[in-house]
């Protein structure tokens, strides 16, 4: 299902060198040009398989990282000034970490809880589809997992 991961493993096994050149204004494309539904299906297709492909330790570290981000906007036991400062620090971190991966605006960092909620919904849908249904819908057709 994760053709990019499988291809990468084949390159490694066959000692084929890969160079990744980021376009930086030369090459630009939309991964899901047909909108939200296509994005949701594409992410659902790969999310749970990709999350576990790096091994259990990597998966658990990623879960811990994401749990820390959720804690940044769900824990309000501290004074409001501290809570707001923590929120905006995490928004800044999210913005800075996302810059090399795509064309994101400053407000994408501010709305990181919405993006993270989307991630969790897609992840659990992907997990359900992968474990119980054993197929996902992608580009208008059912794909066996």
What does this structure look like?
It is globular and about 55 Å long. It starts with a helix and ends with a strand. With 145 residues, it is mainly alpha-helical. It is built from six helices and two strands, in the order H-H-H-H-H-H-E-E. It has helices at residues 3-13, 36-53, 56-74, 80-98, 106-110, 112-133; strands spanning 135-138, 141-144. Strand 1 (135-138) and strand 2 (141-144) form a beta hairpin. Strands 1-2 form a two-stranded antiparallel ribbon. It has one domain.
Main attributes?
2 strands; 145 residues; 65% helix; single chain; mainly alpha; two-stranded antiparallel sheet
Secondary-structure topology with pairs:
Layout: H1 3-13, H2 36-53, H3 56-74, H4 80-98, H5 106-110, H6 112-133, E1 135-138, E2 141-144
Antiparallel strand pairs: 1-2
Helix pairs in contact: 2-6
């Amino acid at each position: 299902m994760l053709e990019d991961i499988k291809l990468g493993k084949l390159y490694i096994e066959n000692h084929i060198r890969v160079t990744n050149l980021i376009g930086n204004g030369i090459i630009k494309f939309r991964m899901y040009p047909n909108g939200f539904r296509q994005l949701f299906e594409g992410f659902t297709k790969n999310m749970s398989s990709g999350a576990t492909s790096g091994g259990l330790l990597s998966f658990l570290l990623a879960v811990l990282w994401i749990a820390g981000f959720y804690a940044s906007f769900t824990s309000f036991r501290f004074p409001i000034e501290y809570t707001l400062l923590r929120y905006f620090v995490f928004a800044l971190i999210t913005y800075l970490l996302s810059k090399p991966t795509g064309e994101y605006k400053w407000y994408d960092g501010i709305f990181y809880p919405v993006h993270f909620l989307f991630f969790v919904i897609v992840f659990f849908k992907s997990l359900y589809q992968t474990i119980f249904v054993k197929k996902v819908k992608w580009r208008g057709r059912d794909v066996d997992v």
